[in-house]
Amino acid sequence: MESFTIKEAAEKLRVSYGTIRGAILAGRLKAYRFGARGGTYRIDPADLEAYRASCMTTKQEPPASKTSAGGGSAFKNLDGERLLDAWRRQGVVVDPPGGRSAPSCGSSCDPSTPPES
Q: What span, in angstroms and rounded, lies between the C-alpha atoms of 102 and 93?
């Protein structure tokens, strides 16, 4: 009975050893393990073909554009108010106390504060 090792299966599908081993460990590819700890795996050709068929995609989507045609951001529907509302619902403090932008605003390094003598 013919069977493949992980290395042979990877070569046949032209993928990495780790891809095949990961598919076995995740239960997506049926394999037989012989030997105790650290034993060797064997894969039936029919199981390898079934795995290959399960990986087939039918719809090819074009890659998303990183930027819009006019340069600038790829975001089309970014609404600042909705974004702030979403952050608030997550419990993030988006409105700093006292309306200042950072806790260090009141330090002596603030350009609007006259230097101490």
A: 12
How far apart are the C-alpha atoms of 2 and 98, rounded to whole Å?
Answer: 75
Q: b vs e for 25-55, b when ≥16 Cβ sit within 10 Å of the residue's Cβ?
A: eeeebebeeeeeeeeebbbeeebbeebeeee
Q: Angle at the Cα of 102 (from 116 to 75), degrees rounded to 5?
A: 145
In this structure, what DSSP letter does residue 27 have? T
Other Cβ atoms less than 10 A from the Cβ of 24: the count is 20
pTM of structure = 0.49
Residue 42 identity (one-letter amino acid)? R
For residue 7, what pLDDT band results from cuts at 50, 70 and 90?
very high
pLDDT digits (tens, 9 = 90+) for 34-73: 887 778 999 999 999 999 999 888 776 666 655 545 555 6
Domain ranges of the chain: 6-54
In 36-108, alpha helices (H): 45-54, 80-89
How far apart, in whole angstroms, are the C-alpha atoms of residue 67 and residue 75? 8
